[in-house]
């Protein structure tokens, strides 16, 4: 019986190939196969007023994720338990007539390493947040070699904020703890800012594994290349080698599937800080949005890229990416939007998420800024429509 089925399938396949060969198919170049044909339409901005909520200072919002079932957003504060215990907020965004009309804070949840205890001051730096189909939150923390706490990615209970598990971490990301000058691991304040999961639908889990992704904001210590000068003695722009991690989370212990080289664009002219602050998975085929943010003498700037990981080399067994790297295919990138072209003042954009469907059925996209708890900065929300051809 099985042999008959295989014969039948093979027959249909041969017929299909014959039909395809007789049709005049449009030519598709490699660039079109690699990147999706998408664009963004800017719909407006909203500035969240400075405020207190339940004895906490609302600010430092560095990551955001959308709960489609409840039509609510969860935003992580990067407060290192300094002004209040490490926490995330539940937000209600009122999007009406394709405009962001209002934002209300409905709840604050404190992160806890165990039941009944919040994180002590200076032991955690939460930056990225993403909701899972199981109704839990994964939160990425940057780590601080200077303050001697390591980066980690943990799964937290949505209702209680209690840590459920930590994901495994490669030694290459962990600063050496032998008292010597740092030789490996994340740089200070340049660890894990980003976090995203593959779209798996909006219903609770049916047993499908979660694929979770993050990328370091900048290069690891052991991957930093020294500045290069040209013959005239001028420093040349360089590609920074960030690392992109891919986790698989299922019934067994979480595992790291792969790691790839993410080519961070050269620092814009005059930039003091420059890094990748967020990722957002578009589909299950290796397409993502990445947000690169800069700060310099002229203020903040940001660019959104579409990236593709499908052809990238696994670098998880390479201790150092310093110097010329032969035989390694990096993640592919394509500029989607330079946000300076919007003609508005940009703040410290660090969060990105899909939101609800707009009135015409199209997909909304929301960016959010981290005000660093500074009076001169703002918590800014930008609303876009994602368009595809």
UniProtKB/TrEMBL annotation:
Occurrences of domain Phytase-like (ranges): 56-373
Alphabetized Pfam families for the sequence: Phytase-like (PF13449)
Source organism per UniProt: [Phormidium ambiguum] IAM M-71
InterPro entries: Phytase-like_dom
Superkingdom to which the source organism belongs: Bacteria
Single GO molecular function: endonuclease activity
Keyword Nucleus: no
Name under which the protein is recorded: Endonuclease/exonuclease/phosphatase
UniProt keywords, alphabetically: Endonuclease, Exonuclease, Hydrolase, Nuclease
């Amino acid at each position: 019986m099985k042999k008959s089925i295989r014969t039948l399938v093979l027959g249909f396949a041969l017929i299909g190939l014959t039909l395809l060969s007789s049709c005049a198919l449009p030519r598709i170049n490699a660039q079109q196969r690699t990147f999706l044909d998408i664009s963004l339409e800017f719909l407006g901005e909203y500035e969240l007023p400075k405020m207190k909520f339940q004895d906490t200072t609302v600010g430092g919002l560095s990551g955001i994720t959308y709960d489609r079932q409840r039509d609510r957003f969860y935003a992580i504060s990067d407060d290192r338990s300094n002004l209040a215990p490490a926490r995330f907020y539940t937000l209600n965004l009122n999007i009406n007539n394709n405009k962001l009309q209002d934002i209300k804070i409905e709840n604050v949840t404190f992160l806890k390493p165990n039941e009944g205890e919040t994180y002590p001051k200076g032991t955690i730096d939460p930056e990225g947040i993403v909701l899972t189909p199981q109704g839990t939150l994964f939160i990425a923390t940057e780590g601080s070699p200077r303050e001697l706490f390591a980066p980690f990615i943990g799964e937290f209970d949505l209702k209680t904020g209690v840590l459920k598990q930590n994901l495994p971490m490669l030694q290459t990301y962990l600063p050496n703890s032998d008292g010597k000058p740092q030789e490996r691991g994340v740089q200070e304040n340049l660890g894990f800012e980003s976090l995203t999961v593959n779209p798996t639908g909006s219903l609770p889990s049916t047993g499908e594994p979660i694929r979770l992704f993050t990328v370091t904001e900048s290069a690891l210590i052991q991957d930093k290349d020294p500045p290069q000068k040209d013959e005239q003695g001028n420093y040349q722009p360089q590609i920074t080698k960030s690392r992109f991690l891919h986790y698989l989370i299922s019934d067994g212990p979480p595992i790291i599937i792969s790691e790839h080289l993410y080519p961070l664009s050269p620092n814009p002219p005059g930039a003091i800080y420059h890094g990748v602050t967020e990722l957002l998975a578009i589909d299950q085929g290796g397409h993502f949005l990445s947000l690169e943010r800069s700060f310099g003498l002229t203020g903040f700037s940001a660019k959104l890229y579409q990236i593709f990981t499908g052809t990238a080399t696994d670098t998880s067994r390479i201790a150092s990416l310093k110097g010329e790297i032969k035989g390694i295919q990096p993640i592919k990138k394509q500029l989607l939007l330079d946000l300076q072209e919007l003609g508005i003042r940009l703040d410290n954009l660090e969060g990105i998420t899909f939101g609800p469907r707009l009135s015409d059925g199209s997909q909304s996209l929301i960016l959010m800024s981290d005000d660093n708890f500074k009076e001169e900065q703002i918590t800014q929300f930008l609303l876009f429509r994602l368009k595809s051809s």
